[in-house]
Write a structure and sequence with these properties.
148 residues; mainly alpha; 4 helices
Length: 148
């Protein structure tokens, strides 16, 4: 919920509203949901390692899903030195379109945006993770929920 609503609020404040925003919000919500499925019984370095591993996987998954949201609609994608187009071809065999999508993703985001996202996420989790987890656990212990 936090990833979804924070992206929406950020887009409104910065003027970043565009056709990509609903896809970013949906994918961010999925990534937040996936983080909720991580094991809760890990301690110390194992917990940080699990978070870093998930952060790397989520960084690349975000890029792949965001590319998948626009790739079928992009027309005429050609790369010098590569025969044929990288665009989606309606009616083409599934493996042929998956190959095109894989090359498209590798060339457009995996080597740059996704890898940069994975590195910065990992560094932030290693450096800030222990302090943030301690703070969140303390707030969790002090919180009281009353059901009336």
């Amino acid at each position: 919920m936090l990833g979804c609503t924070s992206l929406f609020a950020s887009a409104l404040m910065t003027g970043g509203v565009g056709p990509w925003l609903p896809f970013q919000m949906l994918v961010s919500a999925w990534i937040g949901m996936g983080a909720g499925f991580l094991p809760r019984r890990l301690d110390g370095r194992w917990e940080i390692l699990a978070l870093v591993t998930y952060g790397i996987a989520a960084s690349y998954a975000f890029g792949i899903l965001m590319n998948l949201s626009s790739w079928p609609f992009a027309l005429g994608i050609a790369v010098p030195g590569h025969e044929g187009s990288l665009s989606y071809v309606a009616g083409a065999p599934l493996l042929e379109n998956l190959h095109r999508f894989g090359v498209y993703t590798l060339l457009t985001s995996t080597g740059s945006w996704d890898t940069g996202r994975a590195i910065t996420t990992s560094v932030a989790l290693v450096v800030l993770g222990p302090a943030i987890l301690t703070t969140l656990r303390r707030a969790s212990r002090r919180s009281v929920i009353e059901v009336s």
